Each structure stands twice: as structure tokens, then as C-alpha cells.
Amino acid sequence: MMSACRGKPGRDARPPVVLISVDTLRADHLPAYGYKRLQTPGIDSLRKDSILFENAYAQVPLTLPSHASLLTGLLPFENGVRDNIGFRLAATHPTVAALLKTRGYTTGAAVSSFALRRLYEPHTPYAPPEPFKTRYASNLYDGEIAAADEAVLRFLEFLKRRRLYDPALVVFLADHGEGLDDHGEDEHGVLLYRETIRVPLLVKLPASESAGTTIRTPVGLIDVLPTIARVAGAAAPEKISGRSLLPDAPGPSTARRIYSETLYPRLQLGWSDLASLSDDHYQYIEAPRPELYDLLADPGEKNDLAAGKPPAFRSLRLALEALKRPVAAPEKNAPEELERLGSLGYISVHAGNAGTNLPDPKDRLHVLKKYKRLFELFYARRDSEAVALAREMLTQDPRILSVSRILSTSLDRLGRSGEAQRALQSALDRPDPGGTAEDLEQAYGQLADLFEKGGDRVAAERCLRAAVSRKIAGDPVTRRLARILVETGRGQESLALLPPAQALEDPESLKLRGAALAQGGKSKEARAAFLSAVAQNPRDATAMFQLGLLSLRAQDPGGAREWLEKALLLEPRSPDALAALGLAQVALGDENGAFDSWTRAVALDPGQHQALFNRAVLAGRLGRREDARKGLEQFLAVASQDRYPREREEARRLLKSMKGTSPG
């Protein structure tokens, strides 16, 4: 995020505040931090005017929780945002923007626009634009850094042209780093070594005060909020863990122990979570096999000192144990959000994460590489390869429900729907299918989709009932089961699945309730449910169509026409609405209008057999004998005896009468 905040014009001397956040940028890949294989003129120019913090740490190596700590000055277990999905920042935690607004600042932030933007480069897949793609062909990660630097340079030049740069507070940082396989992790989120949590941090004060200074004392991204607040003259919240980074800031100047964590391995992979404390000499990583590194002698963290349990190991371990870190409980996530993040490389597989004896993430990195490869193949729709890899992985661990779901989807996309059904059914039939309740619910929904697609509604219903009986069915699965019951004439059963009308808030459930009530002859209650659905979504054509049908049953053709015409304004190609509108028009004496509506309905959907019959009968009444004859013959050729016995008998009678009457 590149966001700018500035005071009101006039005599207000409060400095503009600019926050630049670059995604996935390692500190040790910038020339400002000693890197020699890359040129970054934009960041270098900012560094000359700034204080550089040599040992700045992200609190989480993931974008959302890292920014939550950055913008609130709170540690992850204090602000409650512990992972990229399933967590939201509560409105009770004031952010930098909120604090600045109390001082009269106007604030703004945007993504990928001119002056105000979050820079997503560098981020996988590394694909820098030219000329950086060619210039850094052997290291595309660096090429993306160079591309991001060019954007920074343009923005700084813009600030200078507008005479905003010199009086501004400019904070440049990254939300986290990137593994680049230094410890077996190619991206970020799973491990807590310095390559993923040590980030660049430059602070340019107004008038470039203390320019060129380097601070080696460990600091955290939680320190950004109190720093901005102090420069802007805003009062930072009292109970925050961050401290001001200003050289003259009050408080102890001694080395601190900076906290970092990742719950991603536990919440999304079924492995142990990790936590860390870093000071000016050591980093301690709490894991099933704890680790300790001497950052002065071993900055690359290749030599684990934990086995000898030196004093630093014991001291840091006790300090970490003293922190009160509550267990995280993520919210339920929409399948679309999980799919979106999965397509970006955020892997969620859930091999089961209950209990305490969970695998150490550093021992499972070979599996992580397979996960990533599987997701890459899946989202690239290379389904034959995805099927082969998924089966290999399930042979090693059949409890990985997400892999079974990928296997099933890939098989279905290859046209092997029977195998797709069996693969997912086999996973769900296991005594311990693995995954969370959310995974299981989505898997049952996916299997029901496969059965319905294959025309086996009985199996789909059985599948959805299994989810309900296991008490894992949320609203989407419950609604689907209710829909099947309504569509198969069991409206009363569906009502038992749906909450009372006064408790319903979503239009889909209201419409299901309305359809079930209408099926049971409770037209007044059904009408109230559909009206509530329209009130919540004034563009709900389906609810309007149902209100039209209810009006027809109540012998109110005028009301029916009104609702059906509203529905057709929103969905003009709805054959059902056109067929029903024809009935209302006939009742109102508009036979030509009815003939036109039924003609359009049949043209849109040749399966509208009742409309075909009605049109043919009406054609005869209007004197259009040839249209009537052809329509009746067509109806007899396509309409089933079981569903239309009365209409078929009438069609034969009318055709016989036509043959016995000479034209003219």
C-alpha cells in the first residue's frame, strides 16, 4: 500500500505522511542493505534522506496479519488478525488512518494507481516487465524488485514536483520477505527464519532530519503507528506494543525482543504453528523442535544452537512462554475466497489440525512443495498431471481432503464424472476423512453437484443429508437440500430445515420458504416471504416471478401481470415468466399479447410444452388455423402422456375437428 495523508491547507503545519508498503521484499535483496546484484535508484535516493533500520521484523510473514500489526501497533494476538483468511480487524482497534483523521488529516489509499498504491511486486509468479525481465533474466525476483523500485522513484519525483517531499514523513517498508529456498521454503508463511520476517524499513523525517543514520537495534512493524502518530502530533493508543522509532523518543533505548508468529501451518496445513523472539544477538524459534541462532556469527541461520541449550535459549524461551497468546478461532470462509487465494498460491489443505502433537513445519517442506505443485497444475487446468500427482499424494496420506477434492474436480473436467464421484465419495466414507468442518461441508456440496450433474438427484439428496446428520451443514448445504425437497414436492420437509421467517435474512432462504409454503397451500405466508425477498433485493426477478404465480392462483391476473412484467424487465429471456404472463394476459382479454408471450417462451425453451399447447389452442380461437394445427401436432410429438394426459386428449380432439371442417 502506498498511502498519503496530509494536513489541511493554510496555516496547518502538520507534515504530509506517506506510507509505502512493498509486498514480499527481503531486506537483504536491496543495495541499501548491502546487496550488490541489483540497482534500485529510487529506494537508494530515499535511503540517503532517511534513517535505515537494519533489523526490522514483520510480526507475521503474511500480508493481512502483517498489515494489521503495522497499522494498529498491536501484536497479532492483541489485534486478533492471525492469518490471511478467517480473520478481520475489529473496529475497536484504531488504525493509523483513524488517528490521523482525529488531527484533521485527509487520508487515502489505493492499489495499482498513480500516486497512491500498494506495490505487489515482487510476488510469485515472478514476471517483471521489460526491461527488467531481460536485465534480470537469471533472477526474476530481483527483476520484480527493480520494477517496484521504478514505481517508487516515479512517486518520489511526483512528491518533489509538488513540493511535498521535503516536509513529508515518508515510511518505506515491506510486509514480509520471501524464503527463496534458503531453508526449504520458496515463498513465505510457513517458517520464521529471517529471510521471511526481516524487512526493509526506512523513515524519512520532515526536512530529512537524521538523514543517513543507521539503527541496528531490533524494531518491529508495530513501531510504525506510534512513529507516525508522534510526528503528526496525534495521540497513539495507550495500550499498544509498538514504540516510536524517532531518535529522541522517550523510553528505553536498550535492545528489544521482537515477536513474530505464523499460525498458517496449523490453520491451513495441519502442522504446528511457530513463534519467535529476536533480539540484537539471537533469534529463538518455538517449534516442536525449538531452534536458536546467533545472528551476529550466523546471519544466514545455518547453525542451530538449541541442542546445547545456552543461556540465551533458556532466557528467550521463558520470555516467549510468558506472553499470553490465545488460541485463534478463524471465521468461516466463502469457497470463492479460498479459491481466489488458492489461485494466488495460498495453499489450504487441512490434513487435520486437532491436538498438540502436530508435525514440525520444517520436517514437512517436501510435502509443501508437492502441495504447491498440485495447486499450480490444478489452476492451470493441467488436469491429467493433477490427477496423477493427487493420487500419489493420497497414497501417502489419504486424509488430505482438499487433495481428494482437487482429484475429483480434475477427473470431472476430464469428462470422467463416475471416477470423480467415486474419488470424493471414498474420501468422505473414511472414518477420519480429515479436514475441518468447513472442508467437509464443501466436499459434500461438491459431491452433491456431481450427482446432480449426472441426473442422480436421489444420491445428491443422500449426500446433503449426510452433511446435515454430521452437523457440519451450513446455510448453503441446508438451502440446497431444502431446494431439492421443494422441487420434489416435499415442501413441508423443507420448512423443517429452514429457520422461521422472522429469523431469515438472505433472499435465497426466503424464496425457498415461500415456495414451500405455496406448495402447502399457505399462499398468504408464501406471499409475505417473497415480498421480504424483494424488499432485501429489489432486483430479484425470481421472487417477482413467484409473486406473479401466487397472484394467478389467487385469480388476480392484473397483479400477476404487474409482477411478471417487472420480472421480465430484469430477465427478459425468462421462458417461465413469459409462459405465466401469457396466462395473465388471456385472463385480462389480451389474447394477442398472450399469443406473443407464448411464442417467445417456446422459442426460448422448446421444453415449454404447456405454453406450446396454450398457444396452439389460442391460435385456433384467433382464426390462425395453420398455426393451431402445426402447434397441436408438435405438442403431441413432444409432450409426455404421463405429464399431459388431459392436454394430449384435447389436442387430438381439436385436430380431429379441424380435419372434419373444410376451410373457409
Write the layout of secondary structure elements.
Layout: E1 2-6, E2 17-22, H1 41-48, E3 51-53, E4 56-57, H2 63-72, H3 76-79, H4 96-102, E5 106-110, H5 132-135, H6 140-161, E6 169-174, H7 194-197, E7 198-199, E8 201-204, E9 214-215, E10 219-220, H8 224-232, E11 258-262, H9 264-269, E12 274-278, E13 282-286, E14 291-294, H10 311-321, H11 335-343, H12 365-379, H13 383-396, H14 401-413, H15 417-428, H16 437-453, H17 457-469, H18 475-487, H19 491-497, H20 507-519, H21 523-536, H22 541-553, H23 557-570, H24 575-587, H25 591-604, H26 609-621, H27 625-638, H28 645-659
Parallel strand pairs: 2-6, 3-9, 4-10
Antiparallel strand pairs: 1-2, 1-5, 3-8, 4-7, 6-8, 11-12, 12-13, 13-14
Helix pairs in contact: 1-6, 12-13, 13-14, 14-15, 14-16, 15-16, 16-17, 17-18, 18-19, 18-20, 19-20, 20-21, 20-22, 21-22, 22-23, 22-24, 23-24, 24-25, 25-26, 26-27, 27-28
Could you please describe the fold and organization of this structure?
A hairpin with a 3-residue loop joins strand 12 (274-278) and strand 13 (282-286). Helix 22 (541-553) runs parallel beside helix 24 and helix 25 (591-604) runs antiparallel to helix 26. The chain is elongated and about 105 Å long. The chain starts with a strand and ends in a 5-residue tail after the last helix. It is built from 28 helices and 14 strands. With 664 residues, the chain is an alpha+beta fold. The strands form 3 sheets. It has a 7-stranded mixed beta sheet, sandwiched between helices.
Count the DSSP helices. 28
How much helix, percentage-wise, in residues?
A: 40-55%
The helix/strand class is alpha+beta
Strand content: 5-15%
The CA-CA distance between the termini, in Å, is 81 Å
Largest sheet, order of strands side by side? 5-1-2-6-8-3-9
Poorly predicted sequence stretches spanning 5 or more consecutive residues: 8-12
Q: How would you name the oligomeric state of the polypeptide chains in this document?
A: single chain
Largest sheet: 7 strands, mixed
Roughly how many Å is the radius of gyration? 33 Å
Mean pLDDT across all amino acids:
89
Form type: elongated
Number of strands: 14
